[in-house]
């Protein structure tokens, strides 16, 4: 029973970690990253299409993204989509490609980013703790229904806590690494 619970815990908590990693890729660190364009769609002949599917995205410099549309007629649509997404970047186009310069982050903006980052981290920890709570309830129900002994119940709950602590440490490490990346000037 404990192996099944541990596998379920690791699977669900692993999903929380993956979600955290995905969410923090959208936080700007002052360096150009194509991840800021995730979730932005362009009207491609009446169909909302992700930017990554309508053009080639490159990073020629540390603070510059370039989007080379596969179809030049989409340049203005891509530009409008980026502006509408309100990601804090101002696109410029020269008729062939779109440039997205990443301004250097101010100290105030860095602190704001760190605050947002910590909130995302806390949300991930809450999700992990919710998984722990749910599995502890399964164990307690098994004890109540006399399917497992009180000693086994205590042992299972200790194991669940150990797994939870492992994943909380992972969240702290991921958040700490990203925080130092943001604060690095």
Walk me through what this model shows.
The model has no long low-confidence stretch (mean pLDDT 87). The longest helix has 38 residues, at 107-144. Helix content is 58%, strand content 15%. Helix 3 (107-144) runs antiparallel to helix 4 (150-183). It has 4 helices and 6 strands, in the order H-E-E-E-E-H-E-E-H-H.
Give, in spatial order, the strands making up the sheet with the most strands: 3-4-6-5
Round the Cα radius of gyration to an integer and report it: 22 Å
**Counted beta strands:** 6
What's the overall geometry?
elongated
Low-confidence stretches: none
Sheet bearing the most strands, described? Answer: 4 strands, antiparallel
Rounded mean pLDDT is: 87
- List the total number of helices: 4
The helical percent reads 55-70%
Give the ordered list of helices and strands.
HEEEEHEEHH
What share of residues are in beta strands? 5-15%
- The separation of the N and C termini measures 50 Å
| Oligomeric grouping of the chains | single chain
Q: Helices, strands, pairings?
A:
Layout lengths: L1 H24 L15 E4 L2 E4 L4 E7 L2 E6 L5 H11 L6 E2 L4 E4 L5 H38 L5 H34 L2
Antiparallel strand pairs: 1-2, 3-4, 4-6, 5-6
Summarize the structure.
By secondary structure, the chain is α+β, with helices and mostly antiparallel strands. Helix content is 58%, strand content 15%. The protein has a four-stranded antiparallel sheet, with helices on one face.
Keywords:
185 residues; alpha+beta; 4-stranded antiparallel sheet; two-stranded antiparallel sheet
């Amino acid at each position: 029973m404990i192996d099944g619970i541990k596998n379920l815990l690791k699977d669900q908590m692993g999903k929380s970690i993956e979600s955290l990693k995905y969410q923090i890729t959208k936080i700007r660190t002052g360096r150009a990253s194509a991840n800021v364009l995730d979730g932005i769609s362009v009207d491609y002949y009446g169909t909302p299409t992700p930017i990554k599917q309508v053009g080639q995205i490159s990073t020629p410099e540390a603070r510059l993204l370039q989007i080379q549309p596969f179809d030049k007629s989409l340049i203005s649509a891509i530009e409008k989509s980026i502006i509408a997404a309100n990601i804090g970047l101002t696109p410029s186009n020269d008729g062939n490609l779109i440039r997205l310069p990443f301004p250097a982050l101010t100290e105030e903006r860095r602190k704001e980013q760190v605050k947002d980052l910590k909130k995302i981290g806390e949300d991930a920890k809450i999700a992990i703790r919710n998984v722990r709570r749910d599995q502890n309830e399964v164990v307690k129900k098994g004890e109540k229904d006399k399917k497992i002994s009180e000693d086994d119940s205590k042992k299972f709950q200790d194991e669940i806590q150990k797994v939870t602590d492992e994943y909380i440490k992972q969240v702290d490490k991921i958040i700490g690494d990203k925080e130092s990346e943001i604060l690095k000037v």
